[in-house]
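Everyone, carefully examine this protein record:
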Amino acid sequence: MGADVVQALDWAQKAVGESRTFAIGLKVTVVNGSHLVYLLGQDMNDSTGKFHDVFNRMYLRAADPLSIPAHDQWLDSRVSPPDETRHSSQS
């Protein structure tokens, strides 16, 4: 993708709109395997309840996206936000 995390955030906000949530993760590979480190948000499929405050912020962020300065916005026209029809029905 060739973007930093701020541009990834801008792309994600534009891709999902105001009615969905999203998370940004970094896949970390180590000797004994790999795991996902969330940089923003959390896995919405987590059922432990320990991320309740994170989920609340994710829902609030969907309705009121973070402001991205013009010089940090996603500008790569080669990769556009995904077609809405390819999203699952989960938020």
